[in-house]
Design a protein that fits this description.
This protein is an alpha/beta fold. It folds into two domains: about 5-180, TIM Barrel (Alpha-Beta Barrel), CATH 3.20.20; about 200-405, Hypothetical protein af1432, CATH 1.10.3210.10. It has helices at about 5-10, 35-40, 45-65, 80-85, 105-110, 140-155, 170-175, 200-215, 220-225, 230-240, 255-275, 285-305, 310-320, 320-325, 330-335, 340-350, 355-365, 370-375, 385-405; strands spanning about 15-20, 25-30, 70-75, 90-95, 115-120, 130-135, 160-165, 180. The protein has an eight-stranded mixed beta barrel with strand order 1-2-3-4-5-6-7-8, surrounded by five helices. Helix 10 crosses helix 19 and helix 17 (about 355-365) runs antiparallel to helix 18. The longest helix has 23 residues, at about 255-275. Residues about 1-10 and about 405-408 have low confidence and may be disordered.
Length: about 400
């Protein structure tokens, strides 16, 4: 981001925002809580401007990829021309005082595609916010939906955004209730799903993963993929995608299997296991979130010089498999021949890999301070975790599109 290590360390990690389609449509960008607290009393000092410049730079990177970037911004900073000009189309600015923004400046920002929002409170038609941020609290989802309805009645064009939802079911209910964007931990459910048979597609993919785990000949895997028209199509589509960067076109399953190799096949099959999930409103966001978790742990293992980083990719992916397959976690992983480290971490949060899942859980939380502490304990330098997470989201969007076979 070009503003020095101090600023990079102070930036919070992006948190996904799920849209009405059930996929990740953007990210909320926050300063780390400790940094935000220090800056709150400094007005428009150079250090404040520097930090928010870094946030807007990160936002421009996100919007350049076609997604929304939502960030909190003190209204007085819009008086800084360079900061105001750094806000790009698809940037959603939550302002502490929208009334303090001159009408001409607000009009110019909106003409560039910037959206201006306010926090929940008494609707004021004179301000004409583009969106309102509703924060989940002890009142529950019903209170949140009532607040959204109150705003829509006063300002029909306003887009309600709900953040701080702590359970996946609440997040999906908020989408059903008409929220434009919602945010909260994707992997936290109110209760475990009931036992039921695993779908045939998921069983087939688990069998293929086990062939790899048992080091069986890839010709056997190619035979089983060819017997499934959907998997055949998806494998050829993936092999020929820009994400793979192969030098020649691949038209035969056997060639695709050989060219990808065992490590990439394991990764591709993990993507297919996600795509075999039962339909739910936030399924696409869950899929992408699972890929990000896998990529972060894989990159962490690579940086630590550990053998078989692909096993850590699988660990991260499977950490969200329960809500995706809507099966109890123990039943979802039972058909897989996982190592003891993975089983202990996933099922009991024990063993040498448990700290990696704790890192993923910390990333889901409202602030990033806990995640940085976990990352430091795992040997990551300050600022490195944010880099891993940003790269993982960019990679997951590309690979999911190439490998899932679903249209958008």
């Amino acid at each position: 981001m070009g503003h020095g290590a101090e600023v990079l360390e102070g930036l919070g990690h992006r948190r996904p925002l799920v849209g009405r389609s059930g996929q990740v449509e953007g990210f909320e960008l926050l300063l780390a809580p400790a940094v935000a607290q220090r800056l709150a009393a400094r007005g428009d000092s150079p250090s404040v401007v520097l930090h928010y410049s870094a946030l807007l730079s990160a936002a421009a990177h996100i919007t350049g990829a076609g997604r929304v970037a939502l960030l909190h911004l003190p209204a007085l900073l819009l008086a800084k021309p360079k900061l105001a000009e750094a806000a790009t189309a698809q940037t959603w600015l939550l302002l502490d005082d929208l009334a303090a923004v001159p009408p001409a400046q607000a009009q110019a920002l909106r003409a560039r595609g910037v959206r201006l929002g306010v926090a929940d409170g008494q609707p004021d038609a004179r301000l004409k916010p583009d969106f309102v941020l509703l924060q989940a609290n002890a009142g529950g989802i019903d209170t949140l939906l009532l607040s959204a309805q109150r705003w829509r009645e006063a300002l029909p064009q306003v887009t309600p955004v709900a953040l701080g939802l702590q359970h996946l079911e609440d997040l999906e209910n908020a989408l059903r209730g008409g929220m434009g964007l919602v945010g909260g931990p994707l992997g936290h459910s109110r209760q475990r799903p009931p036992s039921r048979p695993m779908g045939a597609a998921a069983h087939r993919i688990c069998g293929l993963l086990n062939h790899l785990a048992l080091d069986r000949d890839t010709a056997l895997i190619a035979d089983e993929v060819r017997a499934d028209a959907t998997l055949t199509y998806r494998l050829l589509r993936y092999a020929n995608s820009p994400a793979m960067g192969l030098r020649r076109a691949v038209e035969v399953v056997d060639d695709a299997v050989q060219l990808l190799g065992r490590a990439e096949l394991r990764r591709w099959l993990s993507v297919q296991l996600l795509a075999a999930a039962q339909h739910r409103p936030a399924a696409r966001a869950l899929e992408e979130g699972a890929l990000v978790r896998g990529r972060v742990l894989e990159a962490l293992a690579q940086r630590r010089g550990e053998p078989q980083p692909g096993a850590h990719f699988t660990l991260g992916v499977l950490s969200l498999i329960e809500p995706l397959l809507q099966l109890p976690l123990a039943e979802a992983v039972a058909p897989l021949r996982l190592g003891e480290e993975a089983n202990a971490a996933l099922l009991r949060r024990e063993g040498p890999w448990a700290a990696r899942l704790a890192l993923l859980d910390a990333l889901d939380q409202a602030g990033s301070d806990g995640a940085e502490t976990q990352a430091a304990a795992l040997g990551l330098a300050p600022g490195a975790l944010a880099e891993l997470v940003d790269e993982a989201w960019a990679w997951a969007a590309q690979v999911r599109e190439a490998g899932s076979g679903r249209g958008h």
